[in-house]
Amino acid sequence: MTDIVFIKQFKVQTVIGVYEWEKAIQQTLEFDLELATDIRQAAATDDLQYTLDYSAVCTAIAELCQHPHELIETVAEKVAAMVLDKFPTKAVKVTIAKPAAVPAAASVGVSISRGSW
Length: 117
Hints:
Blueprint: E1 3-14, E2 27-37, H1 40-45, H2 54-64, H3 72-86, E3 91-98, E4 108-115
Antiparallel strand pairs: 1-2, 2-3, 3-4
């Protein structure tokens, strides 16, 4: 059985982009994550230590984004690796949207899945 803890539209201000003008400003990235876990023990005990602390995941993502990156693909890979390494999950889906990247589009981005679903 796989349960999913999810995070939707977590917004981070960061320096992201390949163009020189992008390296001089902060832009918004929006993160959606799905984290595969087993929530039964947490549900039975009502105890946070037995589940994924989504607040801690968000804090870790924000800290990772304090450093500039050129590609959201790089950020997606780093977030997936960090989540799999630091949190009790066996798989993660990371979707990153960059809303202001293309003026004619509501958003653009990438979505990756890592781990064993």
